UniProtKB/TrEMBL annotation:
GO terms for biological process: regulation of cell division. It comes from Christensenella minuta. InterPro entries: Fido, Fido-like_dom_sf. SUPFAM superfamilies: Fic-like. It is an enzyme of class 2 (transferase). Residues 49-197 form the Fido domain. Gene3D superfamilies: Fido-like domain. Keywords: ATP-binding, Nucleotide-binding, Nucleotidyltransferase, Transferase. This is protein adenylyltransferase. GO terms for molecular function: AMPylase activity; ATP binding. It catalyses: L-threonyl-[protein] + ATP = 3-O-(5'-adenylyl)-L-threonyl-[protein] + diphosphate; L-tyrosyl-[protein] + ATP = O-(5'-adenylyl)-L-tyrosyl-[protein] + diphosphate. The keyword Nucleotidyltransferase applies. Its EC number is 2.7.7.108.
Length: 236
């Protein structure tokens, strides 16, 4: 089945600037989304965290570059992951996205976050974060959208978390999400490590006490610095 999101015969996403070079498109996307990420927390402030808000956030971040921003994908996707020796996470079938996203966000809302101790809060948040991320509801921009959504949700519950840590170690965060999504052999400990650290150490990454700083350079034997972005493929 041809991918309706890409230019025919390529894996380059159709975009508002008609950029047909993959590297140039990535650079343009990163520049535009970075600007929107700066104001995303303000955009989300005071809003109810729902499926509709997740879609609106995706549009807020990516609407400058993609016509389909804010819409759930209509095709199944896969991506070869170095941290999985070239295998892909089994992302949720596109026909189930509305139902599964609503289920996970409803469960997120039903948790009594204010009654959890820090370690339990980090553990619960880790599993909720990974479960929502595994859906990958959009054709592109899932990690940035879902990370922003989840961290802002936590802030709405008056739980302090060091957001800067996730930006500083974005490759580690993404690869740890991958490892937490390889059912039925999920490895939550990598994601849990940075979430717990972010909840207990609020200093900017460069000002952290070295005795408290975690090592975010490796996940098992995989060097996170080797990460480079791979395009999604569609399932035939």
């Amino acid at each position: 089945m041809p991918d309706p999101y890409t230019y025919p015969g390529t894996n380059i996403l159709i975009n508002k600037f008609d950029i047909r070079d993959g590297q140039l498109l990535t650079e343009k996307e990163n520049d535009l989304v970075y600007i929107n990420l700066v104001t995303a927390e303000q955009y989300l402030s005071g809003k109810e965290f729902t499926v509709d808000l997740l879609k609106k956030l995706h549009y807020y971040l990516f609407g400058d570059i993609y016509e389909w921003a804010g819409q759930f994908r209509t095709i199944n996707i896969r991506k070869a992951e170095r941290v999985l020796d070239g295998m892909s996470v089994e992302y949720t079938d596109y026909t189930l996205l509305e139902k599964e996203t609503a289920r996970i966000i409803a469960a997120l809302q039903n948790i009594e976050w204010e009654h959890l101790e820090t370690e339990d809060c980090a553990d619960t948040f880790t599993k909720c974060f990974a479960e929502l991320w595994k859906l990958h509801p959009f054709r592109e921009g899932n990690t940035r959208t879902i990370t922003t959504f989840m961290l802002s949700f936590l802030g709405s519950k008056n739980i302090d978390i060091n957001v800067a840590l996730f930006s500083e170690y974005s490759s580690y965060v993404r690869d740890s999400l991958v490892m937490a999504s390889i059912q039925p052999y999920q490895e939550y400990q990598h994601l849990y490590k940075i979430i717990l650290d972010a909840m207990t150490n609020h200093a900017e990454p460069e000002r952290m006490d070295n005795s408290k700083r975690q090592d975010y350079s490796h996940i098992n034997d995989y060097d996170v610095k080797e990460y480079h972005y791979e395009l999604f493929e569609t399932e035939e």
